[in-house]
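Hello support,

Our group uses your service weekly, and this is the first time we've seen a run hang past the timeout. The protein is Teichoic acid D-alanyltransferase. I'm not sure whether the cause is the sequence or the server load. Input pasted verbatim:
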Amino acid sequence: MHNITPYTSPTYFIYLLLFLLPIMIGLFYGKRFRVYETFATLVILVITFFGGNMSQGFSLIAYVLVEMIIVLGYLRYKRSPNGKNNFWVFFWAVILAIIPLAIVKIDPLMNNATISLFAFMGISYMTFKSVEMIMEIRDGAIKEIKPWEFLRFLLFFPTITSGPIDRFRRFQKDVLNVPSRDEYIELLKSGTNKLMLGLLYKFIIGYVFGTLLLPKVSLLALSYRDQAPLGISWALLAYMYVYSMYLFFDFAGYSLFAVAISNFMGVKTPMNFNRPFQSVNIKDFWNRWHMTLSFWFRDFIYMRLMFFMMKKKLIKSRITMANIGYVALFLIMGFWHGETWFYIVYGIFHATAMITNDAWLRFKKKHRQSIPSNKFTKCLAIFITFNVVCFSFLIFSGFLNTLWFS
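Update from on-call engineer: The timeout came from a worker crash unrelated to the input. Re-ran successfully.
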């Protein structure tokens, strides 16, 4: 048996149905079969990570052990009589938690033909969870984590490979609670709707854009490589829109599956997308697109960087601080996606868009009386934002690298 990537084949959904049914029956009658949930989780993890290629499974085990030692070790330090809020202890705990992900990201640059020690699906999302726990332990928001609670949170199989990124305290409230029958019926309805929508997004609309259209417009755009300056053509524009649609429907489909299966298990995993292509500006877009990731970066990088600069009084201007924060935030996001020029440019592009957007909003507020605000201007704002986002996805796709350099 080969490793089965979650939510990509009918076989995986059949396994899910078989193992979810007892959990769903139990919750319908007001009971959580915790031992069975653990068993089902182990089986799904084996199917996902321990198929024909078992290296991912061993990498997962090594990673989880490392992260458990770091997170629980830091918690023990914080709870000890001599445990102080020492910045450097916290700093090194975060660095150590990130190192496995950094190894995976840097490994391709070393021209290493082998799979790095921690290479497995979902390591990014699990790292975000570990770092969040460390930061909230430092803040005093998390005061206790038992080893099995850590494992249950990190290895929650509906979201392990594709997100969304949940928060430990929110997750704990759900898994420690047994919803009433009426609440669970609503979760079943919500989960079923999301599952059906996910099937539409991923396997129908995503298939049309990703499998039927994208290869064709890609070849057409490449055919203009030597016929137009920088290969810029209407076909390239078509590629930009087709790829953007594929990226959204494929990823949103995955996220809907994860939320749906979570709902079936009585867990209200947060949504990842909220009609992002209806955004009126780029900041609105990031409040709608991959929301759990953007909120994670906002809460644990941007806001903490702002607080640090304000506390140390490094910069007087709040506008300058915000701009520095945007650049740092989106550069980190770019590097997180990969160490290639188009991911870095993608990050810089969005930082520039955020800075420009803030400047426009300040100007608009100052000249409120002379700038119209109506349905037309809203539609124009949505149109501009949509095209700015689609252009950023063209950069992100790496197609320009193929068009110009390959």
